[in-house]
Amino acid sequence: MSNNSVIDSSPLLPFHKKLLIQSAGGPFLDGWLLSIVGIALVGMVPELGLGTAELSFAGAAALIGIFAGGLIFGRLTDRIGRQLMYTIDLIALVVASLLCAFVTEAWQIIALRFIIGVAIGADYPIATALLTEWLPIKKRAAMVGSLVVFWFVGAAVATMVGFGFAAVFGDGSWRWMLASGIVPGVIILLLRIGTPESPRWLISKGRFEEAHAVARRVYGQDVDVHNLVATESEEVKKAGFAALLKGAYLRRVVFCGGFYLAAVTPLFAMYTFGPTMLAAFGLSSGNSSYLGETIISVLFLVGCIIALPLTESVGRRPLLIWSFVLMLIPLTVLGALPQGPAWLIIVAFSAYALFSGGPNILEWSYPNEIFPTEIRATAMGVVTAISRIGAAVGTFLLPIGLEKFGVGGVMYMAAGLTAVGLIVSVILAPETRGRSLAEASSIEPGRTTQKERAGIKVGL
């Protein structure tokens, strides 16, 4: 009898590919909504009369919302299921995006961006947990990581859309930019109709008949799950958040949250204030800075695509560590040479974007692999919230930092944070390549859990 379950050892099926597209829709829309605001702010600032503080709040509001959404809805997803929450959060994203086109005061755009952030924060643990729990071992990291690729596809397309609006209609088209997310939002919402619930989650709740039926529809065989143990441990099931605050799980939270925060804080600052930062380096504002941000956005995407196969060929841990090492180099150059030639600035930003692909891919793969089903979405929500503390603070402080320390000082700060991510990864990063989900999430590496032993018997 194989030591892997049907889910773990399954070949890649059309079902998996369809589920990937359904799950990726949320990250695609998230990338769209979080990046296009950087271009929209150029026209929004004079029309709404935004001061430095209001500009900072407008940029950081969505990130603060992601913090709240991840904490609240990650746990709710573990309690009531992945599939239901899968649809609700997209509706909120579409409605809030539409309302952004009608704002007349600063507080309104800040409030709506916060709501958008809450919905995005909810989608991260929902989509990643659902996809992870259906995937076979050999495709797990690459396919979960590809959700991040779709995030960058959405970001790149949005910056091109925003650039197009600005070039054709001028900076006053910022309302259309912010509302443009409703088009992909409605399409994604329709695609998600009929998405099945995770059998692992159903089993963790003791709903064996439903898990049996779902697995049979997908794999075309009669799989008996009645003897499968319903919980990883009663302590984990009952504790929820508390289980993440002690022992091995706390160590994993520190690892995932630490490297995630270090990776996304500079990234979101670049996306939110890309044209502003490029102008500070001496590139003119307007079309030149828009074009520069578009190029960098595309290279973030390329970096993720390059990193995808490396998660399986070289492993998660080496990819994460060496990516942080390489990310330090261009940030240090930008800090040391803020008045350098335009080509050097673009090359350094481009190199950072390419090298950041490793951490970006693993931000969602790692937490979904190393936490058990009962608290997987909860952990992903907590890790997302931790990352957004840094991202929100960094995005809020960036305009202020540019005024007080100059762009060189800001780049040195980004390099320092990247160094922290490197240190956390060297000390705490595990290797999960080639391990079943039960093995990877076990607090005793190399040993099967009670659930896995039961799973071996029943073949799920």
What order do the helices and strands come in, and which of them pair?
Elements: H1 6-9, H2 14-48, H3 52-80, H4 82-99, H5 106-132, H6 137-169, H7 174-179, H8 182-191, H9 199-204, H10 208-219, H11 234-239, H12 247-272, H13 274-280, H14 287-313, H15 316-336, H16 342-355, H17 357-369, H18 376-428, H19 437-441, H20 450-458
Quote the CATH topology.
Answer: Growth Hormone, Chain: A
Radius of gyration: 22 Å
CATH architecture: Up-down Bundle
Overall tally of domains: 1
Sequence of secondary-structure elements: HHHHHHHHHHHHHHHHHHHH
Q: Mean of residue pLDDT?
A: 80
Structure summary, number of beta strands: 0
**CATH superfamily placement:** MFS general substrate transporter like domains
The biggest sheet, with number of strands, parallel, antiparallel or mixed sense and barrel status, is: none
Alpha-beta content class: mainly alpha
Determine the number of helices (DSSP H or I, runs of at least 4 residues): 20
Residue fraction in strands: under 5%
The backbone outline, from C-alpha atoms, is: globular
Level of helix content?
Answer: over 70%
In the CATH hierarchy, what is the class?
Mainly Alpha
Residue runs with pLDDT of under 50 for 5 or more positions: 227-235, 445-460
Protein name: MFS transporter
Transmembrane segments: 20-43, 55-74, 86-104, 110-132, 144-170, 253-274, 294-312, 319-337, 343-366, 378-398, 410-429
Family: Belongs to the major facilitator superfamily. Sugar transporter (TC 2.A.1.1) family.
Membrane topology: Multi-pass membrane protein
